[in-house]
Amino acid sequence: MRAYVALGSNLDDPVAQVRAGAQALGKLAGTQLLCCSSLYRTAPVGITNQPDFINAVCAIDTSTPAGALMQALLDIERAHGRQRAIPGGPRTLDLDLLLYGEFTCHEPGLTLPHPRLHERAFVLYPLAEIAPGLNIPGHGRIETLLAGCTGQAIERLEPSNEISKP
């Protein structure tokens, strides 16, 4: 199944955290890391009194069911020191399962597509870079959704082939 995972960090060398997160995705059982977007610097959303974030999106092919994949992402976050003391607060590594094929679900701990994917530049720009023309179930084509994010600050930092380097 083709899935897309958003990566973000604003603590403890965010560039290294996002790169390490991408490498960890490629080591998941039954999963192949296909590609990663460039790195992007973005302003925090919600709690704005915190450092800027480094964000990216990776495409994977996986045989792992969506719920188990989400659990694996949470395990990677914990391995990188993720603490959830303040919702929306600073974090060492954040991994969000954005899409799992065309699968949709609304279960405790897992909503697909990700519930705010369609309105966040820090997800849509890197996703559009690696999957142009993608249709987001229930929301439409990614290019149309990008038009609604024009007021959100985002800066591309590196070409995509740099993200998976150690």
Q: List the helices and strands in order.
A: EHEEEHEEEHEEHE
Average pLDDT rating: 91
Distance between the termini: 27 Å
Note the overall shape: globular
Total number of helical segments?
Answer: 4
SSE topology:
Blueprint: E1 2-9, H1 14-26, E2 31-36, E3 39-42, E4 53-62, H2 66-79, E5 94-100, E6 105-107, E7 110-112, H3 121-130, E8 135-136, E9 140-141, H4 142-146, E10 154-158
Antiparallel strand pairs: 1-4, 1-5, 2-4, 3-4, 3-10, 6-7, 8-9
Account of the protein in words:
The protein is α+β, with helices and mostly antiparallel strands. It contains four helices and ten strands, in the order βαβββαβββαββαβ. The protein has helices spanning 14-26, 66-79, 121-130, 142-146, and strands spanning 2-9, 31-36, 39-42, 53-62, 94-100, 105-107, 110-112, 135-136, 140-141, 154-158. Strands 1, 2, 3, 4, 5 and 10 form a six-stranded antiparallel beta sheet that branches. A hairpin with a 3-residue loop joins β8 (135-136) and β9. The radius of gyration is 14 Å and the shape is globular.
Record keyword descriptors for this entry.
166 residues; alpha+beta; six-stranded antiparallel sheet; two-stranded antiparallel sheet; 10 strands
Q: How would you summarize what this structure contains?
A:
The chain has helices spanning 14-26, 66-79, 121-130, 142-146, and strands at 2-9, 31-36, 39-42, 53-62, 94-100, 105-107, 110-112, 135-136, 140-141, 154-158.
